[in-house]
Structure formats: structure tokens, C-alpha cells
């Protein structure tokens, strides 16, 4: 490619200074979700679907979940 001054085979000198764990915050969809209007079909506990969307820093918390009604 003309005008392109470095290869992509190794370390790129203009890489971000951010640590990989910090990148989740930068690309989080949490801020884009309208949690007040989330609708979850077949949930056992009403409005529990809203609770599973959480900010990056709480991503490892597993105490909130959606239990669904299964039809046989």
C-alpha cells in the first residue's frame, strides 16, 4: 500500500497506552441500552431482565440473572 510506512507483522508503535482491561469501558454498550424499557419475555420474576445489564466494573457479578419459564 503506497504511503503506508509500517508493517503489521509485529509491534505497532502507535498502539494505545490503555490496558486491555480498560478497553471494556471504552467500548461498553451499557450506556446505549435503555434499561427502563427493556422487555424480557417468559421471565419468572417480572422485570428481572432489566437487572442483567450492568456497567463494566460489575461485569463479573453473577447474583442477578433471568430465570425463564420453559414450556414443554
Strand residues, percent: under 5%
Cα-atom Rg, whole angstroms? 20 Å
Question: Alpha-carbon distance between the termini?
Answer: 58 Å
The average pLDDT value, as a whole number, equals 78
Could you estimate the helical fraction of the residues in percent? under 10%
What is the overall number of helices? 1
How many E-type strands? 0
What are the secondary-structure elements, in order, as H or E? Answer: H
Low-pLDDT runs of 5+ residues are none
Q: Main sheet?
A: none
General shape: elongated
Helix/strand-derived class? Answer: little secondary structure
Could you walk me through the main structural features you see in this protein, from its secondary elements to its overall organization?
This is PITH domain-containing protein. One of its GO terms (cellular component) is cytoplasm. This protein is mostly loops. 10% of the residues lie in helices and 0% in strands. It has one helix at residues 20-26. The protein starts with 19 loop residues before the first helix and ends in a 46-residue tail after the last helix.
Question: Can you give keywords for this protein?
Answer:
single chain; 72 residues; little secondary structure; 1 helix; elongated; Galactose-bd-like_sf; PITH domain-containing protein
